[in-house]
Write a structure and sequence with these properties.
By secondary structure, the chain is α/β, with parallel strands linked by helices. It has 16 helices and 10 strands. The longest helix has 28 residues. The chain binds alpha-D-glucopyranose and manganese (II) ion (2 copies). One manganese (II) ion binds next to helix 10.
Length: 411
Protein backbone atom coordinates (compact mmCIF):
# COMPACT_ATOMS: atom_id res chain seq x y z
CA UNK A 1 0.00 0.00 0.00
CA UNK A 2 1.57 3.31 -1.01
CA UNK A 3 1.84 5.90 1.76
CA UNK A 4 0.33 9.14 0.44
CA UNK A 5 2.53 12.19 0.73
CA UNK A 6 0.25 13.88 3.26
CA UNK A 7 0.65 10.94 5.68
CA UNK A 8 4.40 10.60 5.49
CA UNK A 9 5.39 13.18 8.11
CA UNK A 10 2.99 11.60 10.60
CA UNK A 11 4.55 8.20 9.89
CA UNK A 12 8.06 9.55 10.44
CA UNK A 13 7.01 11.21 13.71
CA UNK A 14 5.22 8.09 14.94
CA UNK A 15 8.24 5.88 14.23
CA UNK A 16 10.53 8.45 15.84
CA UNK A 17 8.61 8.28 19.10
CA UNK A 18 8.40 4.50 18.79
CA UNK A 19 12.22 4.45 18.71
CA UNK A 20 12.25 5.70 22.31
CA UNK A 21 15.39 6.69 24.15
CA UNK A 22 14.98 10.40 23.41
CA UNK A 23 16.22 12.96 25.93
CA UNK A 24 14.14 15.99 26.80
CA UNK A 25 15.17 19.41 25.47
CA UNK A 26 16.02 20.41 29.08
CA UNK A 27 18.37 17.46 29.44
CA UNK A 28 19.96 18.11 26.04
CA UNK A 29 20.68 21.68 27.07
CA UNK A 30 22.86 20.49 29.94
CA UNK A 31 25.55 19.37 27.48
CA UNK A 32 27.87 21.76 25.69
CA UNK A 33 26.44 20.82 22.29
CA UNK A 34 26.69 23.42 19.55
CA UNK A 35 24.75 23.46 16.31
CA UNK A 36 26.24 25.11 13.23
CA UNK A 37 24.16 27.29 10.92
CA UNK A 38 25.67 25.49 7.93
CA UNK A 39 24.66 22.02 9.16
CA UNK A 40 20.99 22.95 9.49
CA UNK A 41 21.08 24.95 6.27
CA UNK A 42 22.84 22.28 4.20
CA UNK A 43 20.66 21.64 1.17
CA UNK A 44 22.08 18.26 0.18
CA UNK A 45 24.22 19.59 -2.64
CA UNK A 46 27.70 18.40 -3.61
CA UNK A 47 29.94 18.27 -6.63
CA UNK A 48 27.76 15.63 -8.25
CA UNK A 49 24.50 16.43 -6.45
CA UNK A 50 21.82 19.08 -6.89
CA UNK A 51 20.20 20.37 -3.69
CA UNK A 52 17.31 18.32 -2.32
CA UNK A 53 16.10 20.78 0.33
CA UNK A 54 14.96 24.41 0.15
CA UNK A 55 16.96 27.27 1.64
CA UNK A 56 16.47 28.04 5.30
CA UNK A 57 17.62 31.12 7.19
CA UNK A 58 19.21 31.63 10.59
CA UNK A 59 15.99 32.60 12.37
CA UNK A 60 14.35 29.26 11.57
CA UNK A 61 17.46 27.27 12.38
CA UNK A 62 17.93 28.97 15.74
CA UNK A 63 14.25 28.39 16.50
CA UNK A 64 14.52 24.68 15.66
CA UNK A 65 17.72 24.29 17.70
CA UNK A 66 16.08 25.99 20.67
CA UNK A 67 13.09 23.66 20.46
CA UNK A 68 15.25 20.54 20.19
CA UNK A 69 17.41 21.67 23.12
CA UNK A 70 20.63 22.46 21.24
CA UNK A 71 21.77 25.25 23.54
CA UNK A 72 24.41 26.91 21.31
CA UNK A 73 24.60 28.09 17.73
CA UNK A 74 27.63 28.91 15.58
CA UNK A 75 28.18 30.21 12.06
CA UNK A 76 30.55 31.24 9.31
CA UNK A 77 30.48 35.00 8.66
CA UNK A 78 29.06 34.52 5.14
CA UNK A 79 26.53 31.83 6.12
CA UNK A 80 24.41 34.72 7.35
CA UNK A 81 25.98 37.92 6.03
CA UNK A 82 26.33 38.39 2.27
CA UNK A 83 29.98 38.93 1.34
CA UNK A 84 29.27 42.44 0.05
CA UNK A 85 27.60 43.48 3.35
CA UNK A 86 30.51 42.44 5.60
CA UNK A 87 31.62 45.20 8.00
CA UNK A 88 28.91 47.50 6.61
CA UNK A 89 25.47 48.59 7.85
CA UNK A 90 23.98 45.40 6.41
CA UNK A 91 26.11 43.38 8.81
CA UNK A 92 25.00 45.40 11.84
CA UNK A 93 21.33 44.81 10.94
CA UNK A 94 21.83 41.07 10.51
CA UNK A 95 23.84 40.78 13.74
CA UNK A 96 21.02 42.59 15.57
CA UNK A 97 18.52 40.13 14.04
CA UNK A 98 20.67 37.19 15.18
CA UNK A 99 20.87 38.58 18.72
CA UNK A 100 17.11 38.79 18.85
CA UNK A 101 16.60 35.26 17.48
CA UNK A 102 19.09 33.84 19.97
CA UNK A 103 17.46 35.61 22.93
CA UNK A 104 13.93 34.60 21.87
CA UNK A 105 14.88 30.94 21.63
CA UNK A 106 17.19 30.74 24.64
CA UNK A 107 20.13 29.77 22.44
CA UNK A 108 23.64 31.12 23.06
CA UNK A 109 26.33 31.96 20.56
CA UNK A 110 29.40 29.77 20.88
CA UNK A 111 31.69 30.16 17.91
CA UNK A 112 32.29 32.19 14.80
CA UNK A 113 34.35 31.16 11.79
CA UNK A 114 35.54 32.93 8.68
CA UNK A 115 34.66 31.44 5.32
CA UNK A 116 37.97 31.41 3.45
CA UNK A 117 37.22 28.72 0.89
CA UNK A 118 33.98 29.34 -1.03
CA UNK A 119 34.09 32.79 -2.61
CA UNK A 120 36.06 33.34 -5.82
CA UNK A 121 38.32 35.77 -3.96
CA UNK A 122 39.93 32.68 -2.36
CA UNK A 123 40.71 31.00 -5.69
CA UNK A 124 44.40 31.26 -4.85
CA UNK A 125 43.75 30.39 -1.19
CA UNK A 126 43.52 32.55 1.94
CA UNK A 127 47.27 33.24 1.85
CA UNK A 128 47.74 33.89 -1.87
CA UNK A 129 50.70 35.73 -3.35
CA UNK A 130 48.90 39.01 -4.07
CA UNK A 131 49.20 41.31 -1.05
CA UNK A 132 45.62 42.54 -1.53
CA UNK A 133 44.22 39.03 -1.08
CA UNK A 134 46.16 38.74 2.16
CA UNK A 135 44.99 42.16 3.29
CA UNK A 136 41.44 41.07 2.49
CA UNK A 137 41.95 37.89 4.55
CA UNK A 138 43.07 40.02 7.52
CA UNK A 139 40.04 42.26 7.09
CA UNK A 140 37.81 39.19 7.13
CA UNK A 141 39.26 37.53 10.22
CA UNK A 142 39.30 40.84 12.14
CA UNK A 143 35.67 41.41 11.25
CA UNK A 144 34.88 37.86 12.38
CA UNK A 145 36.47 38.55 15.75
CA UNK A 146 34.28 41.66 16.08
CA UNK A 147 31.14 39.64 15.26
CA UNK A 148 32.22 37.03 17.79
CA UNK A 149 32.50 39.53 20.64
CA UNK A 150 29.31 41.32 19.65
CA UNK A 151 27.36 38.05 19.87
CA UNK A 152 29.16 36.65 22.91
CA UNK A 153 31.27 33.90 21.34
CA UNK A 154 34.09 32.16 23.16
CA UNK A 155 35.68 30.48 20.16
CA UNK A 156 36.82 31.33 16.65
CA UNK A 157 37.51 28.48 14.24
CA UNK A 158 39.73 28.50 11.15
CA UNK A 159 39.55 25.80 8.55
CA UNK A 160 42.27 26.76 6.04
CA UNK A 161 40.67 24.46 3.50
CA UNK A 162 42.09 26.15 0.45
CA UNK A 163 45.62 26.57 1.81
CA UNK A 164 47.34 24.30 -0.69
CA UNK A 165 47.43 23.73 -4.41
CA UNK A 166 46.34 21.69 -7.39
CA UNK A 167 49.51 21.96 -9.45
CA UNK A 168 52.97 21.65 -7.98
CA UNK A 169 55.71 24.21 -7.90
CA UNK A 170 53.68 27.37 -8.48
CA UNK A 171 53.60 28.43 -4.83
CA UNK A 172 56.34 28.53 -2.22
CA UNK A 173 55.05 26.60 0.78
CA UNK A 174 57.17 28.55 3.26
CA UNK A 175 55.77 31.85 2.04
CA UNK A 176 52.22 30.51 2.18
CA UNK A 177 52.60 29.31 5.76
CA UNK A 178 54.13 32.61 6.84
CA UNK A 179 51.34 34.56 5.16
CA UNK A 180 48.70 32.35 6.70
CA UNK A 181 50.26 33.02 10.11
CA UNK A 182 50.08 36.76 9.39
CA UNK A 183 46.29 36.49 9.09
CA UNK A 184 46.01 34.58 12.37
CA UNK A 185 48.25 37.15 14.03
CA UNK A 186 45.97 39.91 12.78
CA UNK A 187 42.97 38.06 14.27
CA UNK A 188 44.67 37.63 17.65
CA UNK A 189 45.81 41.27 17.77
CA UNK A 190 42.30 42.46 16.97
CA UNK A 191 40.91 40.07 19.56
CA UNK A 192 43.11 41.53 22.31
CA UNK A 193 41.86 45.03 21.47
CA UNK A 194 38.21 44.10 21.02
CA UNK A 195 38.06 41.88 24.11
CA UNK A 196 39.35 44.81 26.18
CA UNK A 197 36.70 47.07 24.70
CA UNK A 198 33.92 44.61 25.50
CA UNK A 199 35.54 43.71 28.87
CA UNK A 200 35.46 40.06 27.85
CA UNK A 201 38.08 37.31 27.74
CA UNK A 202 39.81 36.86 24.41
CA UNK A 203 38.48 34.15 22.13
CA UNK A 204 40.06 30.75 21.81
CA UNK A 205 41.32 30.54 18.24
CA UNK A 206 41.05 27.01 16.90
CA UNK A 207 42.65 25.57 13.79
CA UNK A 208 40.81 22.77 12.03
CA UNK A 209 42.61 20.38 9.71
CA UNK A 210 41.25 18.28 6.88
CA UNK A 211 43.65 16.04 4.96
CA UNK A 212 42.07 16.32 1.51
CA UNK A 213 39.51 18.67 -0.10
CA UNK A 214 39.13 21.23 -1.48
CA UNK A 215 42.75 21.51 -2.58
CA UNK A 216 44.54 18.51 -4.07
CA UNK A 217 47.48 19.04 -1.73
CA UNK A 218 46.95 20.64 1.67
CA UNK A 219 49.69 22.51 3.54
CA UNK A 220 48.32 21.80 7.03
CA UNK A 221 46.56 18.46 6.52
CA UNK A 222 46.35 17.11 10.08
CA UNK A 223 45.93 18.29 13.65
CA UNK A 224 49.54 17.25 14.26
CA UNK A 225 50.74 19.44 11.39
CA UNK A 226 48.82 22.27 13.01
CA UNK A 227 50.40 21.66 16.40
CA UNK A 228 53.79 22.01 14.73
CA UNK A 229 52.60 25.17 12.99
CA UNK A 230 51.38 26.68 16.29
CA UNK A 231 54.79 25.97 17.82
CA UNK A 232 56.76 27.05 14.74
CA UNK A 233 57.52 30.58 15.87
CA UNK A 234 55.39 32.13 13.12
CA UNK A 235 52.56 33.04 15.49
CA UNK A 236 52.84 36.10 17.70
CA UNK A 237 50.26 34.69 20.18
CA UNK A 238 50.64 30.90 20.11
CA UNK A 239 49.01 30.73 23.55
CA UNK A 240 45.73 31.98 22.03
CA UNK A 241 45.72 29.37 19.28
CA UNK A 242 44.77 25.71 19.62
CA UNK A 243 42.85 23.06 17.73
CA UNK A 244 39.38 22.20 16.60
CA UNK A 245 39.89 18.62 15.46
CA UNK A 246 37.04 17.07 13.52
CA UNK A 247 36.47 13.37 14.19
CA UNK A 248 36.08 12.44 10.53
CA UNK A 249 38.94 14.64 9.33
CA UNK A 250 41.31 12.59 11.47
CA UNK A 251 39.76 9.31 10.36
CA UNK A 252 39.97 10.37 6.70
CA UNK A 253 43.76 10.15 6.62
CA UNK A 254 43.75 6.85 8.48
CA UNK A 255 44.46 8.17 11.95
CA UNK A 256 43.08 6.76 15.16
CA UNK A 257 40.96 9.77 16.22
CA UNK A 258 41.48 8.87 19.87
CA UNK A 259 45.26 9.06 19.41
CA UNK A 260 45.01 12.41 17.54
CA UNK A 261 42.93 13.79 20.39
CA UNK A 262 45.39 12.43 22.93
CA UNK A 263 48.22 14.31 21.22
CA UNK A 264 46.15 17.52 21.25
CA UNK A 265 45.33 17.03 24.95
CA UNK A 266 48.98 16.38 25.77
CA UNK A 267 49.86 19.71 24.15
CA UNK A 268 47.04 21.48 26.04
CA UNK A 269 45.53 22.47 22.68
CA UNK A 270 42.21 20.64 22.52
CA UNK A 271 39.98 23.73 22.53
CA UNK A 272 36.97 22.64 20.45
CA UNK A 273 35.77 19.40 18.83
CA UNK A 274 33.69 18.82 15.68
CA UNK A 275 31.66 15.66 16.08
CA UNK A 276 30.49 13.49 13.21
CA UNK A 277 31.27 10.14 11.65
CA UNK A 278 32.33 8.50 8.39
CA UNK A 279 34.80 6.13 6.83
CA UNK A 280 38.59 5.86 6.64
CA UNK A 281 40.39 7.08 3.53
CA UNK A 282 37.24 8.42 1.89
CA UNK A 283 35.98 11.93 1.21
CA UNK A 284 34.38 14.17 3.83
CA UNK A 285 30.97 12.51 4.13
CA UNK A 286 30.12 14.23 7.45
CA UNK A 287 27.69 11.56 8.69
CA UNK A 288 25.91 12.02 12.04
CA UNK A 289 27.92 11.08 15.14
CA UNK A 290 27.88 7.39 16.06
CA UNK A 291 26.20 6.05 12.92
CA UNK A 292 29.36 4.43 11.57
CA UNK A 293 31.84 3.90 14.38
CA UNK A 294 29.94 3.79 17.69
CA UNK A 295 32.59 1.71 19.45
CA UNK A 296 35.35 4.10 18.46
CA UNK A 297 33.15 7.00 19.52
CA UNK A 298 32.57 5.44 22.92
CA UNK A 299 36.31 5.15 23.32
CA UNK A 300 36.89 8.73 22.21
CA UNK A 301 34.44 9.95 24.83
CA UNK A 302 36.00 7.79 27.52
CA UNK A 303 39.30 9.50 26.72
CA UNK A 304 37.79 12.99 26.79
CA UNK A 305 35.85 12.33 30.00
CA UNK A 306 38.85 10.88 31.76
CA UNK A 307 40.99 13.89 30.85
CA UNK A 308 38.44 16.56 31.70
CA UNK A 309 37.77 18.03 28.24
CA UNK A 310 35.14 20.72 28.83
CA UNK A 311 34.94 22.47 25.45
CA UNK A 312 32.09 22.35 22.95
CA UNK A 313 30.91 19.35 20.98
CA UNK A 314 30.03 20.83 17.63
CA UNK A 315 27.54 18.94 15.44
CA UNK A 316 29.50 19.44 12.23
CA UNK A 317 27.72 16.92 10.08
CA UNK A 318 25.46 17.03 7.07
CA UNK A 319 21.96 15.63 7.26
CA UNK A 320 21.87 13.21 4.30
CA UNK A 321 20.26 14.42 1.09
CA UNK A 322 17.64 11.69 1.47
CA UNK A 323 16.33 13.46 4.57
CA UNK A 324 13.59 16.03 3.96
CA UNK A 325 13.50 19.57 5.32
CA UNK A 326 11.00 18.27 7.91
CA UNK A 327 13.24 15.31 8.67
CA UNK A 328 16.28 17.51 9.34
CA UNK A 329 14.76 18.81 12.57
CA UNK A 330 12.39 15.93 13.33
CA UNK A 331 14.93 13.12 12.94
CA UNK A 332 18.44 14.20 11.97
CA UNK A 333 19.31 16.71 14.71
CA UNK A 334 17.49 15.16 17.67
CA UNK A 335 18.90 11.71 16.92
CA UNK A 336 22.45 13.05 16.48
CA UNK A 337 22.20 14.86 19.82
CA UNK A 338 20.72 11.82 21.55
CA UNK A 339 23.35 9.42 20.20
CA UNK A 340 26.02 11.77 21.46
CA UNK A 341 24.46 12.03 24.91
CA UNK A 342 23.95 8.27 25.08
CA UNK A 343 27.59 7.64 24.18
CA UNK A 344 28.74 10.30 26.66
CA UNK A 345 26.70 8.68 29.44
CA UNK A 346 28.01 5.24 28.46
CA UNK A 347 31.52 6.64 28.68
CA UNK A 348 30.68 7.57 32.28
CA UNK A 349 29.50 4.01 32.83
CA UNK A 350 32.78 2.68 31.40
CA UNK A 351 34.78 4.90 33.76
CA UNK A 352 32.92 3.60 36.79
CA UNK A 353 32.66 -0.02 35.65
CA UNK A 354 34.14 -2.18 38.44
CA UNK A 355 35.42 -4.81 36.01
CA UNK A 356 37.27 -2.33 33.81
CA UNK A 357 38.55 -0.55 36.88
CA UNK A 358 39.91 -3.70 38.51
CA UNK A 359 41.44 -4.89 35.24
CA UNK A 360 43.07 -1.49 34.60
CA UNK A 361 44.38 -1.25 38.16
CA UNK A 362 45.81 -4.76 37.89
CA UNK A 363 47.58 -3.91 34.62
CA UNK A 364 49.06 -0.80 36.21
CA UNK A 365 50.16 -2.70 39.31
CA UNK A 366 52.02 -5.17 37.10
CA UNK A 367 53.19 -8.60 38.20
CA UNK A 368 56.03 -7.31 40.33
CA UNK A 369 59.04 -9.02 38.75
CA UNK A 370 61.84 -9.34 41.28
CA UNK A 371 64.41 -8.10 38.79
CA UNK A 372 63.06 -5.45 36.35
CA UNK A 373 66.29 -5.64 34.34
CA UNK A 374 65.63 -9.28 33.43
CA UNK A 375 63.52 -9.47 30.22
CA UNK A 376 62.49 -13.07 30.84
CA UNK A 377 61.33 -12.34 34.40
CA UNK A 378 59.44 -9.17 33.39
CA UNK A 379 57.67 -11.01 30.57
CA UNK A 380 56.69 -13.88 32.83
CA UNK A 381 55.45 -11.58 35.59
CA UNK A 382 52.95 -9.93 33.24
CA UNK A 383 51.99 -12.88 31.03
CA UNK A 384 48.54 -13.56 32.50
CA UNK A 385 47.74 -9.93 33.26
CA UNK A 386 48.01 -8.88 29.61
CA UNK A 387 44.99 -11.05 28.73
CA UNK A 388 43.04 -8.25 30.44
CA UNK A 389 43.51 -6.03 27.36
CA UNK A 390 41.14 -8.26 25.41
CA UNK A 391 38.84 -8.65 28.38
CA UNK A 392 38.56 -4.83 28.64
CA UNK A 393 37.80 -4.58 24.91
CA UNK A 394 35.07 -7.21 25.32
CA UNK A 395 33.64 -5.34 28.28
CA UNK A 396 33.52 -2.08 26.26
CA UNK A 397 31.55 -3.81 23.51
CA UNK A 398 29.26 -5.33 26.13
CA UNK A 399 28.53 -1.90 27.56
CA UNK A 400 28.05 -0.44 24.08
CA UNK A 401 25.49 -2.99 22.94
CA UNK A 402 24.00 -3.71 26.35
CA UNK A 403 25.24 -7.31 26.18
CA UNK A 404 26.13 -7.32 29.89
CA UNK A 405 22.40 -7.14 30.53
CA UNK A 406 21.78 -10.22 28.37
CA UNK A 407 20.13 -10.35 24.97
CA UNK A 408 17.80 -12.90 23.43
CA UNK A 409 16.05 -12.73 20.06
CA UNK A 410 14.83 -16.21 19.24
CA UNK A 411 13.89 -18.59 22.02
C1 LIG B 1 33.53 24.18 6.72
C2 LIG B 1 34.06 22.78 6.90
C3 LIG B 1 33.87 22.33 8.33
C4 LIG B 1 34.48 23.36 9.24
C5 LIG B 1 33.87 24.70 9.01
C6 LIG B 1 34.50 25.72 9.92
O1 LIG B 1 32.14 24.18 6.82
O2 LIG B 1 33.43 21.88 6.04
O3 LIG B 1 34.46 21.10 8.57
O4 LIG B 1 34.29 22.95 10.56
O5 LIG B 1 34.05 25.07 7.68
O6 LIG B 1 35.14 26.73 9.28
MN1 LIG C 1 34.45 20.75 10.81
MN1 LIG D 1 34.04 17.35 7.60
Amino acid sequence: MPIPENQQQALVSRLMSACGGAYSPETRRKYYITGPQWAGAYQGQALFHAPTRPEIGYADIIRHYGKIGIGYWCTHDTDVIPTEALAKDGQAEIVAGIKKALAENNVKFSMVTTETFHHAVWAGGPAAEAPEVREYAKFRVRNTVDIGHELGANFAVYWPGSLGYYVQGAIDELDSLRWYADALNAACDRDIETAAKYKRATLKHCLEAKPFEPQAEILLPTSDAMLAFIASGLLTHPEMVGLNPEYLHELMWGAAPRASLARALTAGKLFHFDINDGYRLKHDVDIGVGLVNPLDWLNVLVLLRSHGYNGPFNLDYKPPRTTSAFGVFEVSFPTAVDRFITLWEMAGEVLSDPIIKEATDALKAGGGAANPHDAEAVTKANRELLTLHELIAHRLVQILIGAHRGRVFSA
